[in-house]
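Name: Stage 0 sporulation protein A homolog
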Amino acid sequence: MNKPLILVVEDDMPIRNLITTTLKAHGYRSITALNGETAILEASSHNPDIMLLDLGLPDIDGVEVIHRVRSWSNMPIIVISARSEDSDKIKALDAGADDYLTKPFSVEELLARLRVTQRRLSALQIGAVNTESVFVNGKLKVDFAAGCAFLDGQELHLTPSEYKLLCLLCKNVGKVLTHTFITQQIWGRSWENDVASLRVFMATLRKKLEKDPDAPQYIQTHIGVGYRMMKVE
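Structure predicted for Stage 0 sporulation protein A homolog:
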Protein backbone atom coordinates (compact mmCIF):
# COMPACT_ATOMS: atom_id res chain seq x y z
CA MET A 1 0.00 0.00 0.00
CA ASN A 2 1.40 3.39 -1.01
CA LYS A 3 2.17 6.02 1.54
CA PRO A 4 0.01 9.16 1.27
CA LEU A 5 0.88 11.76 -1.34
CA ILE A 6 2.09 14.90 0.46
CA LEU A 7 1.86 18.40 -1.04
CA VAL A 8 4.72 20.50 0.38
CA VAL A 9 4.03 24.25 0.13
CA GLU A 10 7.24 26.05 1.07
CA ASP A 11 9.15 28.85 -0.70
CA ASP A 12 12.33 28.51 1.40
CA MET A 13 14.49 26.09 -0.61
CA PRO A 14 16.61 24.65 2.28
CA ILE A 15 13.49 23.90 4.35
CA ARG A 16 11.63 22.54 1.31
CA ASN A 17 14.55 20.25 0.50
CA LEU A 18 14.77 19.09 4.12
CA ILE A 19 11.09 18.19 4.13
CA THR A 20 11.04 16.44 0.76
CA THR A 21 14.25 14.52 1.51
CA THR A 22 12.81 13.39 4.85
CA LEU A 23 9.57 12.30 3.21
CA LYS A 24 11.39 10.35 0.50
CA ALA A 25 13.64 8.64 3.06
CA HIS A 26 10.55 7.39 4.87
CA GLY A 27 8.74 6.16 1.79
CA TYR A 28 6.37 9.07 1.28
CA ARG A 29 5.48 10.48 -2.12
CA SER A 30 5.56 14.26 -2.45
CA ILE A 31 4.93 17.16 -4.79
CA THR A 32 5.93 20.77 -4.14
CA ALA A 33 4.63 24.30 -4.58
CA LEU A 34 6.59 27.51 -4.02
CA ASN A 35 3.61 29.83 -3.58
CA GLY A 36 -0.06 29.86 -2.64
CA GLU A 37 -1.61 30.00 -6.11
CA THR A 38 0.48 27.05 -7.27
CA ALA A 39 -0.44 25.17 -4.09
CA ILE A 40 -4.15 25.57 -4.82
CA LEU A 41 -3.62 24.42 -8.42
CA GLU A 42 -1.56 21.38 -7.35
CA ALA A 43 -4.12 20.50 -4.69
CA SER A 44 -6.96 20.52 -7.21
CA SER A 45 -4.94 18.74 -9.93
CA HIS A 46 -3.27 15.96 -7.94
CA ASN A 47 -5.70 15.51 -5.02
CA PRO A 48 -2.94 14.92 -2.43
CA ASP A 49 -3.74 13.16 0.84
CA ILE A 50 -2.05 15.72 3.14
CA MET A 51 -0.78 19.29 2.71
CA LEU A 52 2.23 20.69 4.59
CA LEU A 53 1.76 24.45 4.40
CA ASP A 54 3.99 27.42 5.21
CA LEU A 55 2.03 30.58 6.04
CA GLY A 56 4.58 33.16 4.86
CA LEU A 57 4.26 32.66 1.11
CA PRO A 58 5.43 35.22 -1.49
CA ASP A 59 2.06 35.80 -3.18
CA ILE A 60 -0.87 35.13 -0.80
CA ASP A 61 -0.96 34.36 2.90
CA GLY A 62 -1.14 30.70 3.88
CA VAL A 63 -4.36 31.30 5.81
CA GLU A 64 -5.98 32.38 2.54
CA VAL A 65 -4.77 29.12 0.98
CA ILE A 66 -6.48 27.20 3.78
CA HIS A 67 -9.75 29.11 3.28
CA ARG A 68 -9.75 28.47 -0.46
CA VAL A 69 -8.82 24.79 -0.23
CA ARG A 70 -11.44 24.25 2.47
CA SER A 71 -14.14 25.49 0.10
CA TRP A 72 -13.87 22.19 -1.79
CA SER A 73 -11.60 19.78 0.12
CA ASN A 74 -11.35 18.19 3.57
CA MET A 75 -7.74 17.13 2.97
CA PRO A 76 -5.70 17.34 6.23
CA ILE A 77 -3.56 20.49 6.34
CA ILE A 78 -0.56 20.69 8.66
CA VAL A 79 0.81 24.21 8.99
CA ILE A 80 4.59 24.58 9.32
CA SER A 81 5.37 28.18 10.19
CA ALA A 82 7.78 30.48 11.99
CA ARG A 83 4.75 32.32 13.40
CA SER A 84 4.62 31.14 17.00
CA GLU A 85 2.01 33.44 18.56
CA ASP A 86 -1.20 31.79 19.80
CA SER A 87 -3.19 34.25 17.68
CA ASP A 88 -1.48 32.98 14.51
CA LYS A 89 -2.15 29.36 15.46
CA ILE A 90 -5.78 30.11 16.25
CA LYS A 91 -6.26 31.98 12.96
CA ALA A 92 -4.87 29.05 10.95
CA LEU A 93 -6.78 26.41 12.89
CA ASP A 94 -10.03 28.37 12.70
CA ALA A 95 -9.53 28.67 8.94
CA GLY A 96 -9.47 24.87 8.75
CA ALA A 97 -5.92 23.66 9.43
CA ASP A 98 -5.69 20.34 11.24
CA ASP A 99 -2.37 20.85 13.02
CA TYR A 100 0.33 23.48 13.55
CA LEU A 101 4.07 22.87 13.72
CA THR A 102 6.35 25.78 14.64
CA LYS A 103 9.73 26.40 12.99
CA PRO A 104 12.39 25.41 13.77
CA PHE A 105 11.18 21.82 14.00
CA SER A 106 12.77 18.40 14.18
CA VAL A 107 12.19 15.85 11.44
CA GLU A 108 11.13 13.40 14.15
CA GLU A 109 8.32 15.72 15.22
CA LEU A 110 7.24 16.25 11.62
CA LEU A 111 7.06 12.50 11.05
CA ALA A 112 5.14 12.07 14.30
CA ARG A 113 2.58 14.67 13.21
CA LEU A 114 2.22 12.88 9.88
CA ARG A 115 1.64 9.55 11.64
CA VAL A 116 -1.09 11.12 13.78
CA THR A 117 -2.72 12.54 10.66
CA GLN A 118 -2.47 9.19 8.89
CA ARG A 119 -4.19 7.47 11.82
CA ARG A 120 -6.97 10.05 11.62
CA LEU A 121 -7.28 9.45 7.87
CA SER A 122 -7.45 5.69 8.42
CA ALA A 123 -10.05 6.11 11.15
CA LEU A 124 -12.18 8.24 8.84
CA GLN A 125 -11.80 5.84 5.91
CA ILE A 126 -12.29 2.59 7.83
CA GLY A 127 -15.01 3.95 10.06
CA ALA A 128 -16.87 6.16 7.62
CA VAL A 129 -20.13 4.43 8.48
CA ASN A 130 -19.31 4.50 12.17
CA THR A 131 -19.32 8.32 12.23
CA GLU A 132 -23.09 7.98 11.76
CA SER A 133 -23.53 5.17 14.25
CA VAL A 134 -20.76 4.13 16.66
CA PHE A 135 -17.36 5.64 17.46
CA VAL A 136 -14.74 3.52 19.26
CA ASN A 137 -11.44 4.85 20.60
CA GLY A 138 -9.60 2.62 23.05
CA LYS A 139 -12.07 1.85 25.85
CA LEU A 140 -14.33 4.74 24.84
CA LYS A 141 -17.44 3.99 22.81
CA VAL A 142 -19.96 6.59 21.66
CA ASP A 143 -23.24 5.44 20.14
CA PHE A 144 -24.40 8.48 18.19
CA ALA A 145 -27.70 6.91 17.19
CA ALA A 146 -28.61 5.99 20.78
CA GLY A 147 -27.18 9.21 22.21
CA CYS A 148 -25.04 7.57 24.87
CA ALA A 149 -21.37 6.94 25.66
CA PHE A 150 -19.55 4.11 27.42
CA LEU A 151 -16.13 3.77 29.02
CA ASP A 152 -14.80 0.26 29.57
CA GLY A 153 -18.33 -1.07 29.16
CA GLN A 154 -19.88 1.27 31.72
CA GLU A 155 -22.27 4.00 30.60
CA LEU A 156 -21.08 7.54 31.19
CA HIS A 157 -23.67 9.83 32.74
CA LEU A 158 -23.14 13.04 30.81
CA THR A 159 -25.00 16.32 30.73
CA PRO A 160 -26.35 17.38 27.30
CA SER A 161 -23.50 19.89 26.87
CA GLU A 162 -20.87 17.34 27.92
CA TYR A 163 -22.28 14.83 25.44
CA LYS A 164 -22.33 17.38 22.58
CA LEU A 165 -18.76 18.33 23.42
CA LEU A 166 -17.65 14.69 23.47
CA CYS A 167 -19.36 13.98 20.13
CA LEU A 168 -17.71 17.00 18.51
CA LEU A 169 -14.26 15.88 19.68
CA CYS A 170 -14.87 12.28 18.59
CA LYS A 171 -16.00 13.28 15.11
CA ASN A 172 -12.77 15.28 14.73
CA VAL A 173 -10.39 12.76 16.34
CA GLY A 174 -6.73 13.77 15.96
CA LYS A 175 -7.62 17.36 15.02
CA VAL A 176 -7.00 20.44 17.16
CA LEU A 177 -10.32 22.27 17.64
CA THR A 178 -10.06 25.90 18.69
CA HIS A 179 -12.12 27.44 21.50
CA THR A 180 -13.96 29.55 18.91
CA PHE A 181 -14.85 26.57 16.72
CA ILE A 182 -16.06 24.49 19.67
CA THR A 183 -18.20 27.20 21.23
CA GLN A 184 -19.75 28.04 17.86
CA GLN A 185 -20.59 24.38 17.31
CA ILE A 186 -21.93 23.81 20.85
CA TRP A 187 -23.74 27.10 21.52
CA GLY A 188 -23.94 28.72 18.10
CA ARG A 189 -21.82 31.68 19.16
CA SER A 190 -18.40 32.48 20.60
CA TRP A 191 -18.32 34.92 23.49
CA GLU A 192 -15.73 35.27 26.20
CA ASN A 193 -18.17 33.79 28.72
CA ASP A 194 -18.67 30.78 26.44
CA VAL A 195 -14.94 30.00 26.54
CA ALA A 196 -15.06 30.12 30.34
CA SER A 197 -18.06 27.78 30.28
CA LEU A 198 -16.22 25.50 27.86
CA ARG A 199 -13.34 25.11 30.32
CA VAL A 200 -15.82 24.15 33.05
CA PHE A 201 -17.57 21.57 30.87
CA MET A 202 -14.22 20.20 29.71
CA ALA A 203 -13.09 19.79 33.32
CA THR A 204 -16.25 17.90 34.30
CA LEU A 205 -16.10 15.76 31.14
CA ARG A 206 -12.50 14.85 31.89
CA LYS A 207 -13.40 13.77 35.43
CA LYS A 208 -15.85 11.28 33.94
CA LEU A 209 -13.67 10.21 31.02
CA GLU A 210 -10.10 10.20 32.29
CA LYS A 211 -8.77 7.92 35.02
CA ASP A 212 -6.23 10.64 35.82
CA PRO A 213 -7.38 14.12 34.61
CA ASP A 214 -3.85 15.44 35.27
CA ALA A 215 -2.47 12.89 32.77
CA PRO A 216 -5.24 12.72 30.17
CA GLN A 217 -5.39 9.80 27.77
CA TYR A 218 -8.20 11.00 25.52
CA ILE A 219 -8.43 14.80 25.51
CA GLN A 220 -5.30 16.90 25.04
CA THR A 221 -5.24 20.61 25.93
CA HIS A 222 -3.49 23.07 23.62
CA ILE A 223 -3.06 26.01 25.98
CA GLY A 224 -4.52 29.22 24.62
CA VAL A 225 -5.73 27.43 21.48
CA GLY A 226 -8.18 24.58 22.11
CA TYR A 227 -8.50 20.81 22.51
CA ARG A 228 -7.81 17.60 20.62
CA MET A 229 -9.28 14.11 20.95
CA MET A 230 -6.27 11.81 20.77
CA LYS A 231 -6.40 8.48 18.97
CA VAL A 232 -5.89 5.71 21.55
CA GLU A 233 -4.26 2.54 20.28
